[in-house]
Known about the structure:
Blueprint: H1 2-18, H2 23-45, H3 60-66, H4 68-73, E1 126-131, E2 134-139, H5 151-170, E3 174-176, E4 205-207, E5 217-221, H6 228-236, E6 240-246, H7 250-262, E7 269-272, H8 276-281, E8 290-295, H9 302-311, E9 312-322, H10 325-331, H11 333-340, H12 350-367, E10 371-381, E11 384-393, H13 395-398, E12 405-411, E13 417-421, E14 423-428, E15 431-436, E16 453-460, H14 467-479, H15 487-498, E17 508-509, H16 510-517, H17 524-527, E18 529-531, E19 540-542, E20 550-551, H18 558-562
Parallel strand pairs: 3-4, 5-6, 5-8, 6-7, 8-9
Antiparallel strand pairs: 1-2, 9-11, 10-11, 12-13, 12-16, 14-15, 17-20, 18-19
Helix pairs in contact: 2-3, 9-12, 10-12, 14-15
Amino acid sequence: MLAGTAWLSRVLRVCVSTAPRCPRRAWTAGATAASAARRRFMESSAGPQGSPAAPTPSGSEDKVADSAPSQLNSTTGPALPPPGLGDSPAPSSEAAPPTSRLEDVQPGSFPLDQDTPLEAVLLAGETVVREGRAVIVFPSANEVFYNPVQEFNRDLTCAVVTEYAREHLAAKGVYVVVPGEEGRLVVNLSEDSEGADGQSEGGAKTATVGQSCEEGLRVLEGLAASGLRSVRFGLEVPGLRSITANDCSARAAALIARNAQLNRLQGLLTASQRDASMLMYEARGRKERYDVIDLDPYGSPAPFLDAAVQAVSEGGLLCVTCTDMAVMAGNSGETCYSKYGSVSIKAKYCHEMALRIILHSVDQRAGVYQRYIEPLLSVSVDFYIRVFVRVHSGQARVKSSASKQALVYNCVGCGSFHLQRMGKKTSQGNHMKYSAATGPPVGPNCEHCGHKHQLGGPVWAEPLHNLEFVGRVLAAVSGNPSRFGTSRRIEGMLSMVTEELQDVPLYYTLDSMSSTLHCNTPSLLQARYLHCTTLHCTATMQVPALHSPTLILCVAGPLCSML
């Protein structure tokens, strides 16, 4: 009997010793392991001048501490506590060294010090994303959306916002300092010439990256996800007063706050967990409006446009991305109308028409509140479109909105098209007269092939870009090519933008026109400059090189009569 009892006691002791710990004890062990790993990293990085490591008591804690590095790198190891929690030293009978908290590891120094081991701050299942000057932690599981393909989008946005900030602060006598860029002379146009912190030797105030500028821009990223774009704003765009990175996901908001801490942007970047529309609606007051609002949703931005045009300041910058190209390129015209108030059609110029559809939608929503837009840059890239517009207020200028929109009549046979303006504006001395437009510009059938016409739109029929602003962005990127990873692509895109014809909406493609006329397709260089030799047309028109091999032509013969 006694022998059986002893055997049972030994079995129970083995079971208890091998049983999994309770969640609280497992969490405590993970916290102790993280603390020991951070402490050992700090002691090893102290060098010869650092204090010697305190002796660690023997026992089970030694094994936990020794296995900490593998647990930090493992995606299946126990979850570690959030930064700042569970950093108490391991229990010891001797005096332990001061606890090494997360900030002691110098979070945010990663872009400057590549030798800093990220394992000291990574949680289980996290990876590191480096882009531009930013370094963010990102969960390996797709809990927070991140798209590496849109690095060009983020680079271009940083370039545009930088130039907008330079223009905005120049009137206040503030000099914008861009890393890697040669200095530019800034004339102080403000009446207040009193000294202030951050002044240069010439007396002008300076705005640098990573620092809050009192006269700077208030930026809102409504759908921030991991916060990478906002972190890059803080590290690469000077002249900002504050950045609000918002996302409705609690996991994303926590990740944004952590990435702001890692990049030392706590005083500039604020994480927010709100509904983007409600956040912007609450900022409709003149003093609460944002100078820059960036909307880059997963899909259509239509639900956020009404709030965005109200929350952006006078002359503020609104940046919008659309990734629902299937809808905007003509695959579902009725869906496009329900979202943007415009019918899309399938045509060779569908991507430019998509740009004009979103501009029409933004201008239409702004007009409700006596506001109007000024497009600065509009591009179609990869699988999305991106527009940068200024938003102004003015009841008189809003009356011109109807004359800026047009319906599109597209022939289903030969592909010829005509535009019909929605309104008519005529000048009468110092006054403008607005009236309804007359039309239609086409008959029941196409005059060239006899086919029917598709009706699309209305679309924005004014220029897509501000060439002066685009030229400044291009000059800044060309003068500092090492600033962005996609600088060469930005230069190529903006160079083609400067060659576009501003007063000619939509376009014809050279191959489709040659197919319609049953003739050989001339080379692109031959078609760049063509001269009409017919008696009825003697104009010489420049042919722009667009994003795709598209041309607007005026040539002799039947093709000229078709146009």
